[in-house]
Amino acid sequence: MSEEIFVFNLCSVGPYVVNNANLNAVTYNVNWNTILPHKYSKFEVSCNFRSNAYLPGGLAVAGTVLTDVGFIGLNFGKTDIFEGGSSSSNIAMIYPAVTNAIAALNCSYYNCNNNDNVNFTMDFPQSGIITVTLKTYGGVNMANMQNYNLQLSLKGVAGPNIGKANLMSFEKPSTY
C-alpha cells in the first residue's frame, strides 16, 4: 500500500487568513474536509517553515540579523487533537538563518525544515479555525517577524478501515 501524504501551506498572507494583524499569532479558516480524506482518523505530521527576509528599512544593514530562537505553536481549538491531549502545542523549533557572511550585506529569515524537528501525530481536525503562534523560548513574540509560509505534510496513519488487522501486533510505546 502506498503512503498518502497531503501537503498544506499556511501563508501569513494567503487565502485562508482570518486575522494577520499580528504575524506572531495568525488565525486561519480551513475546510479540512476538502484537504484530508475521512478514511484517516490520525495523521503523522512534519513541517517546514520559512519567513521572508528581514531587511530593516528595505536595505541590508550591518549587524541587523535576527537572533531569536523559538517555537511554532498550533492551536486547533479542540482538546484532543494532538497525541497527549492538548489543543495547543509547540510543534517545531524555528531559528534565524543569515543569507550572507559579509556583514554589510546581511539579511536573515526564520527557518526550519522537516529534518530539524520530530514528527508528531494528530487526530483529524474538527475545528476549521486554527491559530499559528510564533514565540521565543521565554514565551514572548518572536522579534521582527516577517510574512511566512508554514508547510504541513500530513501522512494518514490510522482510520476506521486502515490497518485493523495489525493493531494487536504492536506494543504501545513507553512515554518519558
Task: Walk me through the structure.
There is one protein chain. With 176 residues, the chain is mostly beta strands. It has one domain. It contains no helices and ten strands. It has strands at 5-11, 17-19, 25-29, 42-51, 70-75, 88-98, 108-112, 120-123, 129-136, 148-158. Strands 1, 2, 3, 4, 5, 6, 7, 8, 9 and 10 form a ten-stranded antiparallel β-sheet that branches. Strand 2 (17-19) and strand 3 form a beta hairpin. The model is unreliable at 163-176 (pLDDT under 50).
Q: How many angstroms does the end-to-end distance come to?
A: 32 Å
Question: Helical percent range?
Answer: under 10%
For the CA atoms, what is the radius of gyration? 18 Å
Spans of at least 5 consecutive residues whose pLDDT stays below 50 are 163-176
Strand tally, please? 10
Report on the biggest sheet: 10 strands, antiparallel
Secondary-structure-based class equals mainly beta
Mean pLDDT: 80
* H/I helix tally: 0
Total domain modules: 1
Order of helices and strands: EEEEEEEEEE
β-strand amount? 35-45%
Q: Label the overall shape.
A: elongated
